[in-house]
Design a protein that fits this description.
Helix content is 38%, strand content 23%. With 216 residues, the chain is of the alpha/beta class.
């Protein structure tokens, strides 16, 4: 299963790529970070690992092409967590109705500001999200919604990403459901060091299999 799709979301249409095995056991939607989209090589590498584990993945542009152009100039939309989270909720609802994914448990994988958007979406659509993972994310930007997250949440941070690590440690204390913080030794914010992204993919795969496919 691999196809480009278009998803209606609050007056706009989002471009996305839906991929995975023919009979997936769950689906993970990706929320990209600052200035990134569905072609992010880092997220695509993680998505490939999830697909190999039997999960479908949805990589969507959370901004329209026109919004992306405006954001390149101002950088304001990538930090509009309410906007991004609202579009993630629309994606979750679309997945529940799409023929190939209806009935499947849904996970969210967020990077950078997308980590905050994923947690806000999980808080606001608790029945639609079974697990969440944040990679180098900014969960602090989720604000008061952090305490309302019920989905099991894994925070992954690079050991050398000092500021973001501190923000994640603080956010961990505000999460009230099942939660875990994993620090990847020697990794910086983009996990560009040898083996760092593979570690992220392995951690995400384990978390989603545990919570989307119980008994694996």
């Amino acid at each position: 299963m691999s196809a480009p799709v278009r998803i209606p979301a609050g007056g706009c249409t989002l471009d996305a790529d839906l991929a995975g095995p023919e009979s997936p056991t769950g689906v993970v939607a990706f929320a990209h970070g600052s200035g990134s989209g569905r072609y992010s090589p880092r997220n695509r590498e993680v998505a490939a690992a999830l697909q190999e584990a039997g999960l479908a993945t949805l990589l969507a542009d959370l901004l329209t092409p026109e919004e992306e152009q405006a954001d390149l100039r101002t950088g304001h939309l990538r930090f509009d967590i309410d906007l991004l989270a609202g579009r993630l909720v629309a994606i979750i609802e679309w997945l529940s109705e799409e023929a190939t994914t209806t009935g499947l448990p849904v996970g969210l994988f967020g990077a950078s500001t997308g980590g905050a958007a994923a947690l806000v979406a999980a808080a606001r659509h608790p029945e639609g999200v079974s697990a969440a993972v944040s990679r180098g994310g900014r969960p602090d930007l989720a604000g008061a919604d952090l305490g309302a997250v019920r989905a099991p949440t894994l925070l992954i941070v690079g050991g050398r990403d000092d500021v973001v690590l501190g923000l994640n440690q603080q956010a961990l204390g505000e999460l009230t459901g099942e939660k875990r913080l994993e620090v990847v030794p020697g990794a910086t914010h983009l996990f560009e060091e040898p083996g760092a992204l593979q570690t992220v993919a392995g951690l995400a795969r384990g978390w989603f299999l545990e919570h989307l496919v119980p008994g694996t």
